[in-house]
Predict the structure of ZZ-type domain-containing protein.
Amino acid sequence: THEHQLYLVPRRIDFTCNACGTQGDRSPYFCLQCNSMIHWECIDLPRVININRYDHRISYTHRLGHGKWKCGVCRDDVDGFFGAYSCSKCSNYVVHPLCATSGNVWDMVELEGIPEEEEIAPFEVIDDSTMKHFSHDHNLQINKDGRILHDDIVCAACVVQVCSEPFYSCEQCDFILHKKCANLPRKKRHVCHNLPFTLRTDSHLEAFSCMPCKQLFTGFRYEVDSRNILDVRCGSFSEPFVHKSHPHALYYSTDYYRFCSACACMPRSMISCDECDFRLCFKCAYLPQNLTRHRYDDIYMCSFKCRHNLGLLVN
């Protein structure tokens, strides 16, 4: 990651690493041409990588220059006069080098010189009101009239009732997709795993267990392997997460022995606030904004309790 030859200084010396911006106390590598010191651990920083917090590639740069940035992983300030990772597509996304290359964020693959995969769209546009989704054999028509379908008719992807939201329907069968579910990407990076998840639309009748919310579900799923599976609601998580019950942005965390502010459960992974003591488990974070009547009374009452705690609307 450095353009000049570096020389080892084999002695105890306090310094600030120019590659990562953190302190060191012994045996730095020194550059005579630009008067910089680098940790031996930072000599092999990768040039181009993917991280699980972000869908675009990020690249290492020696310095960002003047400006104010927050790290996309730890949310602390990033000093623009030391090394950092940044996105060429989104000018405001920056990550500390040590945050970007930590074992629970980076997939350990150097991407320099490897062509970027072209993103495959989840559907083909036929005309202004018709499209063909990769999960279904027939064309689907858009419906935007705000009607609420019978509670037995649910979206094939998220298995939730269609409540006045735009949706696609098939005229040849009973296949229904929320418009937002039809736009789900076929590949997705997620904080729960370093490798990318792939959208699977088969096995509609088989139940799977979602990693973050621990609920059994049917419908579409995001999958790395048989052990790492997400339902499409948890799979759509990205940071910062905005919830209507809370004024601050929320972020993924793995603080153990902390209670969900809605249902008081104690999960291993949560969505929490940096500014106050507010936390949500994934199950409560993705409760639908509106419900008319749920098919299952016990689930409905549990949902009502959590939604009451969150101040959401139940009709």
